């Protein structure tokens, strides 16, 4: 894992810190891996089925946070600041508000924990998932989702999308079930260097051992009736033992 990826991952761990008085929660799950050929799926966390889009040298980080920390919506623009922030104020930087100072616009839910208990074992309802890739095809949009089974040597080994409310009709292409509120969608578009980032936040937790991978597809995820959730072939996969 390169330094840049390590910094990004560290930023992920710190970006949900809501107050200087509260230490950042540890991620429930963090996976970083280098994509290996699909034939080696048994021994590697990440595999590629299409080396033109996801070369064997490409890297990936997936992180999951449980609970419902505030300020999810702000973390991206601050991630690099937080990555090296040890509590001091930034000097000479752009004058913009920090996540620690702006109150959350979200209304608290009845089951939400009080501030300061946002550990992975906290009582907050939600789940946050972030994914970073590096060294993949530049200027390309990938459809990315959480799937139910671990990656294998074959693209379909990772099973269907994880759904909070399961569509009785599988494969699910009904937008009522195949949508980013009932599934975890992490579509991302890479920059000119083949780096990309996406995050998703849902109100629910994964059921135990039912969410096992992040699958990268060849194009953006469709949302229309009869196509919802489809994103083309599976080009790569990361084993992630999501917790709920
Ligand atoms: Cu998928």
What global shape is seen? globular
CATH class: Mainly Beta
CATH T-level topology: Immunoglobulin-like
Give the fraction of residues assigned to helices: under 10%
* Biggest sheet record: 5 strands, mixed
Number of strands: 11
Bound ions, cofactors and other small molecules, one mention each? copper (II) ion
Q: Please, what is the oligomeric state?
A: single chain
Distance between the termini: 27 Å
Number of structural domains: 1
Instruction: Write out the CATH superfamily name.
Output: Superoxide dismutase, copper/zinc binding domain
CATH architecture: Sandwich
Tell me, rounded to a whole number, the average pLDDT.
79
What series of H and E elements makes up the topology? HEEEEHEEEEEEE
- Rg from alpha-carbon coordinates: 18 Å
Strands across the major sheet, in which order? 2-3-11-10-7
Which residues form runs of ≥5 with pLDDT under 50? Answer: 14-19, 71-123
Keywords: Signal
Family: Belongs to the Cu-Zn superoxide dismutase family.
InterPro entries: SOD-like_Cu/Zn_dom_sf
Protein name: Superoxide dismutase
What do you see in this structure?
With 244 residues, the chain is mainly beta. The chain has one domain: Immunoglobulin-like (Sandwich), CATH 2.60.40.200. The chain has helices at 3-14, 75-83, and strands at residues 29-34, 36-37, 46-48, 59-66, 127-134, 141-142, 144-147, 188-189, 196-202, 213-217, 234-239. The strands form three sheets. It has a five-stranded mixed sheet, with no helix packed on it. The longest helix has 12 residues, at 3-14.
């Amino acid at each position: 894992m390169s330094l840049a990826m390590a910094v990004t991952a560290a930023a992920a761990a710190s970006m949900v810190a809501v107050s200087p008085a509260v230490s950042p929660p540890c991620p429930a799950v963090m996976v970083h891996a280098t994509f290996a050929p699909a034939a080696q799926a048994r021994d590697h966390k990440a595999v590629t089925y299409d080396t033109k889009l996801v070369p064997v040298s490409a890297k990936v980080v997936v992180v999951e946070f449980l609970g419902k920390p505030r300020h999810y919506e702000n973390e991206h623009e601050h991630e690099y600041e937080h990555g090296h922030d040890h509590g001091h104020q930034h000097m000479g930087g752009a004058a913009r508000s920090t996540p620690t100072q702006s109150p959350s616009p979200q209304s608290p839910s009845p089951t939400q924990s009080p501030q300061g208990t946002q550990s992975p074992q906290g009582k907050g309802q939600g789940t946050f998932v972030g994914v970073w890739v590096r060294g993949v095809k530049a200027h390309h949009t990938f459809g990315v989702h959480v799937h139910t089974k671990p990656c294998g040597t074959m693209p379909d080994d990772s099973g269907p999308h994880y759904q909070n409310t399961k569509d009785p009709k599988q494969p699910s292409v009904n937008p009522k079930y195949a949508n980013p509120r009932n599934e975890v969608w992490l579509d991302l578009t890479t920059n000119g260097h083949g780096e990309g980032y996406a995050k998703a936040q849902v109100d629910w937790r994964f059921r135990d051992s039912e969410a096992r991978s992040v699958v990268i597809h060849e194009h953006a995820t469709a949302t229309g009736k009869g196509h919802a959730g489809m994103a083309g072939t599976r080009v790569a996969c990361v084993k992630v033992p999501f917790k709920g």
